[in-house]
Each structure stands twice: as structure tokens, then as C-alpha cells.
Amino acid sequence: MKLFASFIIALIAPCFALASSAHYEDIAHAELKAAIASGHITLLDANGGDSYREAHIPGAIDFETHESKIATLLPKDKTALIVAYCGGPTCTAYRDAYDAAIALGYTNVKHYSEGISGWLGRHENVDKN
Fold first, then answer.
1. Which of 5, 33, 38, 73 is most buried, most CB within 10 Å of its CB?
2. CA distance 117 to 38
3. CATH numeric code, 24-121
4. CB 118 within 8 A of CB 33
5. Across the beta sheet with 81-85, what order do the strands follow?
6. Measured distance CA(81)–CA(26) in Å, rounded
7. Confidence band (pLDDT; 50, 70, 90) for 22?
8. Mean predicted confidence (pLDDT) in 24-32
9. Rounded Cα–Cα distance for residues 57 and 73 (Å)
10. Does residue 110 sit in helix, strand or coil?
11. Domain positions in the chain
């Protein structure tokens, strides 16, 4: 029985290591602002519809509402900058949006770890709708 348990652990341990090593590249606030100013960015707000309607970074797509058709809303250029964000540094909801863009073949996907709370904390403009 111990041999069987050791065998199972040996099989599944790499899966946990792989899952925990997922890398989400961050984008700094200044870099995000510059990309927004240049118009060369697609923002994915992963906070959910209620939060999105309350406040979101201008130009952001409500990922929750549009997830089923996100492929049609992203740029054709797979090297285009896609930035996913959610509530703030401890929020992980952005991962669904980030992973969706990666799964669609985008190669320049980043995470704005400050999220909407950091954006608001810096007194940046927001859209509401």
C-alpha cells in the first residue's frame, strides 16, 4: 500500500508544481498609462458586471459579460498588448481573462496587479456604465 501511495504522489506532484508555477507577467502603472495613451492596448476587466458598471479603466472590456465572444472583441494581431486586471493585488479573477487571451494565441498578455482599486487609488479617470 505504501508503494502504491508513493507511486500516486510521484505522479501527481509534478502537476501541482506545474500549476503553482504559472507565470503571469505584470505591467507597471506608468507602462499601462503609456499604452492607453498610445491606443495600442486591449484591457480586460475581470471584476464582473456589477463592478464593471460601477467603475472600470476607460476602454476596458467586461470579460464576464463578453467571455463567450471574447475572440471577436480582441485584435486580429496576436502580438497586440492585452492587459487583464481585477480588484487589486490579492485578487486572482484576472487569471481567467489572461488565460483566455493566451489560449487564443496572444503572445503579449500582461496583468495589471494594482487592479481597479490601485487605479482608483491613484485618482485615475474611470468609465461607468
1. 33
2. 23
3. 3.40.250.10
4. no
5. 61-62, 42-45, 81-85, 108-111
6. 12
7. low
8. 97
9. 17
10. strand
11. 24-121
Cα gap 40→56, rounded to integer Å: 18
> What is the tens place of the pLDDT at every residue in 57-90?
999 999 999 999 999 999 999 999 999 999 999 9
Cβ atoms 84, 57 nearer than 8 A:
no
For 5, phi then psi, to 5°, come to: -65, -40
What does the block give as the cell for 113? 496587479
Answer whether 81's CB lies under 8 Å from 110's CB.
yes
| Tally of residues, the chain | 129
Cell of 111: 496583468
Q: Read off the pLDDT band of 116 (50, 70, 90).
A: very high
Residue 69 is placed in which grid cell? 465572444
| % of residues, the chain, pLDDT over 90 | 81
How far is residue 4's CA from residue 80's CA, in Å, rounded to a whole number?
A: 48
Terminal alpha carbon distance of the chain: 59
- Res 129: pLDDT: 85
